[in-house]
Write a structure and sequence with these properties.
The protein is mostly helical. The protein has a domain of 87 residues. The chain contains 7 helices and 3 strands. It has a 3-stranded antiparallel sheet. The N and C termini lie far apart (53 Å).
Length: 187
């Protein structure tokens, strides 16, 4: 059976078709315009995982009032946390901030680690909130000051717990990726 190649509608030069990776060599169709996407990981996938740990009235309100501003804020937390994932096997700088996606497909554990660092960046903001610290210093009532100090201590403790959890995930991630473990692992 012989298949006939349909004619090219846009006047593309047949000799140069193989040089454009977005052109299907069979019919000259631009795959991006057809909705065919290369597999990637979107920022929303990371944000969804991070928001499982974050409960913030101000973030919730921002998400309702201005989804664009919400994404900018969440992206800031994520980007701030990315350098902490120094043992990632994938290039986390290969990302498209306009399309809000990484240029690589991240595994579940990679997404989870990035989401944890995003949550930690948010928690750092909460810990360093000048309004809470100023309120604690200016408050004359000892019971209220004590309550604010306990709240701050609880946030610091939670941050330390998250850092330990993400360190464990990073260790697991490194061990899963190492070749020597598979070669010398005991059954």
């Amino acid at each position: 059976m012989v298949y006939e190649i349909p004619p090219i509608k846009d006047g593309t030069d047949m000799d140069n078709m193989g040089q454009n990776p977005k052109l299907d060599i069979h019919d000259g169709t631009d795959l991006d315009n057809m909705g065919v996407k290369e597999p990637t990981t979107t920022y929303d996938e990371i944000f969804d995982l991070a928001l499982v740990q974050i409960e913030d009235y101000h973030l919730n309100r921002l998400a309702e009032d201005s989804p664009e501003d919400f994404e900018i804020v969440m992206e800031g937390f994520m980007v701030r946390g990315l350098p902490n994932f120094e043992n990632c096997r994938k290039d986390l700088t290969a990302r498209d901030s306009v399309c809000k996606k990484f240029d690589v497909v991240l595994s579940d554990i990679e997404k989870s680690i990035i989401a944890d660092y995003t949550s930690i960046a948010w928690l750092d903001k909460e810990i360093n909130d000048v309004r809470q610290i100023t309120g604690m210093i200016q408050n004359n009532k000892e019971a209220h000051r004590y309550s604010e100090a306990n709240n701050l201590n609880a946030k610091v403790t939670r941050r330390d717990q998250l850092m330990e959890q993400v360190a464990t995930k990073k260790t697991t991630y490194s061990l899963q990726q190492s070749k020597w473990l598979n070669k010398y692992a005991l059954d």
